[in-house]
């Protein structure tokens, strides 16, 4: 077996891996970066719908409430490489950034490829040896120390190994969970993984009938039995399989565990600005204006066109009925159908559609100040491979940058 050596090996050329390699090299280390794809940063390319929402310009303290799993673990990482530092970092690398609604930060060019170019240029400038189409098969560990990796049957020896192989979401980008295997071999526990920031699968035909309809201002609540487990206000999209859109994607981060065991009820208030009484008055006015018309022809001012037949079905009112004979009770059923539009979610969609993986390497066995394994010296982890995840808004990439930075500087300063 041919042996090569360097100071630091980084496994995975995504956001966390490129950041770790840059910072290790900036400390003077001789770095080899292994990426199994034919190019670096395949997942970064598809982030933010191709625009890359690379961080969030909120107050540093506000990063934490946007973490879903293990936010406290990230204290040193976030303060070590803050969101402001991320913005400065990309500006300095020739990728100017701008702040949009919700403090979301994007490259001024609106091109995620510019983020990848900026990182690749810096890696090259620093002399990092980039090995593409190079899948790392296993880690070399001896006597409680990481000694290197095996790739294409060659051994690469190093003082430190940083594993940044990502999670399981969008496997076509290269994230196929290899790091969990490496970590298990090192003795690490893996918290069960599941797709997150992902649409919901819904029972029945309502969603198919509403497919393509996007609702802007609706109140969405998720119920498990009698318990409300999530609530949000905003956009929702009906698809051929169920529901998606910002409110639903965010909800998935909090209710995925529950949905794995039991279905949940999704209750959508289509008119959140009106109380039930106000909505009833509004309907009464519409009915009075159109008193000789059939019920099916009077809802167009109140509801989107696609929604009308579905709401009519749910109200139980004969669509041919003249509105002047609709009873108070029937009207109340209509109000409920609109204010409590209920769907049964049976599960989450899969990793092919999930923005993030929830679960991963247990952070209790990782030093939060360095990202080094507590079990194997010289072995570091960063990014999505760890049991860390956040809501949308640039927070997940901030996790990757901050933990990548910390692993990169720590593996050199500590190991000399
Ligand atoms: C569609 C989509 C949109 C997103 N949009 C945003 C957004 O706008 N803002 C945001 O903050 N987050 C976003 N995210 C989440 C964000 O992309 C991830 O959190 C982030 O990329 C994680 O970085 P990582 O480096 O840990 O892992 P990854 O980006 O998954 O990188 C891991 C790399 O390791 C490589 N690899 C794996 N195994 C091996 C091996 N054995 N040998 C060699 N290489 C290996 C993979 O090929 C891959 O390149 C989005 C995710 C998706 C899927």
Task: Characterise this structure.
- The protein is α+β, with helices and mostly antiparallel strands.
- It has helices spanning 15-26, 42-46, 75-80, 83-92, 112-125, 178-185, 206-210, 246-261, 276-289, 307-315, 328-339, 395-415; strands spanning 3-5, 8-11, 31-34, 55-56, 67-69, 97-99, 104-107, 129-131, 136-142, 145-151, 154-157, 160-163, 190-196, 200-202, 214-224, 227-238, 242-244, 264-269, 341-348, 356-361, 379-381, 389-390.
- A six-stranded antiparallel β-barrel has the order 14-17-16-15-18-19.
- The two termini are 27 Å apart.
- Bound molecules: flavin-adenine dinucleotide.
- Flavin-adenine dinucleotide binds next to helix 1, helix 2 and helix 12.
List the helices and strands and how they pair.
Blueprint: E1 3-5, E2 8-11, H1 15-26, E3 31-34, H2 42-46, E4 55-56, E5 67-69, H3 75-80, H4 83-92, E6 97-99, E7 104-107, H5 112-125, E8 129-131, E9 136-142, E10 145-151, E11 154-157, E12 160-163, H6 178-185, E13 190-196, E14 200-202, H7 206-210, E15 214-224, E16 227-238, E17 242-244, H8 246-261, E18 264-269, H9 276-289, H10 307-315, H11 328-339, E19 341-348, E20 356-361, E21 379-381, E22 389-390, H12 395-415
Parallel strand pairs: 1-11, 2-3, 2-12, 3-8, 12-21
Antiparallel strand pairs: 4-7, 5-22, 6-7, 9-10, 10-11, 13-20, 14-17, 14-19, 15-16, 15-18, 16-17, 18-19
Helix pairs in contact: 1-5, 1-12, 9-11, 10-11
The structure holds flavin-adenine dinucleotide.
Flavin-adenine dinucleotide binds at residues 11-17, 34-37, 42-44, 46-48, 52-53, 135-136, 164-166, 169-170, 174-175, 178, 355-356, 383-384, 394-397, 400.
